Amino acid sequence: MKLLKYAGFFPWVLIGSLIGSAFVVPAVSNLIDKFYYKEKYNNDAAMFYDQYRNNSYIVKVSMPNADSKLYLHNVDRKKYPLYENFDTTYDSRNFFNNPSADYTSFYCKEYKKYMNIIAFVDVNGSYGEKTLYLTVNRDDMNNPEYGTKENPVPVLKAVGVSEPIWFSGKDSDSVFIEEFYRNNVINYLKYKMPKEEFERRFKTKK
Length: 206
Prior knowledge:
The chain is an alpha+beta fold. Helices cover 37% and strands 19% of the residues.
């Protein structure tokens, strides 16, 4: 009876919280990571880098000035954000380690299509009123489902024709920019391209 008398003073809530924090929450997190996040993205994207690259080519365009409404974020910043984060785990503590991409979506007068310059690292530069060489994929350019406001043509390499884009000038280094392009393509294929489209374009035998 003495045990029952003193049981009310035992910190059951604290013990339950500790057990939950130490065992239950991590277990749930691991299960979600294993069965959801593990298959959420196109994990074998690197295998298809050459295929995507070899089907790409360069176009020359003149970019609008920085305040132009031809940039979609100047029309509606909420609908057309300048960046996107890709969750890779249920663990919120890993948020700042998740990959992210910067977007510059604009209307290209030369090709009458909306395009989106995508960078998975911080470019820290400016596109406004510069003439650029953009590397685009032939399948994307020929697909009528691409080039709209909702689904602009992805541009995974942009370099200045007569001046650097990056304030650091690193984009004038051909070795650096090719490695940047490779990583950009792989990250785009892995995180950004819809899984159904990835399967159809790269894995379905024609």
